[in-house]
Amino acid sequence: MSVVGDRQAIIDAVKGRRSIRRFLPTPVADETVLEIIEIAARAPSGQNMQPWLIHFVTGETRDALCRQVTEAADSGERSDDYPYFPTEFREPYLSRRRKVGFDLFAIYGIERNDFEGRKRALLRNFQFFGAPVGLFFTMERDWGLGAWIDLGNIMTNVMTVARAYGLETCPQQAWAEYGRPVRKVLNLPDQHVIVSGMALGYADYEAKENQLVTERAPHQDFVIRHC
Length: 227
What we know:
There is one protein chain. This protein is an alpha+beta fold. The protein has helices at 7-15, 30-40, 59-74, 93-108, 115-123, 145-163, 179-186, and strands at residues 53-57, 133-140, 168-172, 192-201. It has a four-stranded antiparallel beta sheet with strand order 1-2-4-3, sandwiched between helices. Helix 3 runs antiparallel to helix 7 (179-186). It holds the Pfam family Nitroreductase. This is Nitroreductase.
């Protein structure tokens, strides 16, 4: 079935997506979340193996996660489930990473040398930025690298499809930096890797932190054409 007629809606859904860092407390119906996930599960995967698991958390479980992971992060008790970043940053990635951090701290009104303020801002990750729904994307640890591509596909679908329901998201790999308490609350076996968390809810569009629109490199910087 052709989707040419819906081209602009699709473009807007992709180009308008951003990481929301303050949500309204408005509840999201369970049926809505499950419908989004059901649609997103049309994501491609190698030989249709669908290696992903999605944990949908609300209510008391959400609150317990927030409390225990915030305590671990505040005390510096990291327990990374896997290495996300390279051991040494290089350009242009280092500059991009610094810019988004400095831009966000500037919006919060946090000076560059205000390390306590920066820590408080980062800890907001572990409140799902106020979103009532948290999602965790996991898979069995013995999968090869291809399965990480598959899981990224379904995460992208969730973030895009959510916008069709008036909802927004923030992908949060930061939860995987505190795998021990997440694993405890969700009762996850060691053979499952916590790839990422995600906040889901209704965006507070008036919040200053949601005015941040991160830059993207022009295609000339990363597209290599072969003729």
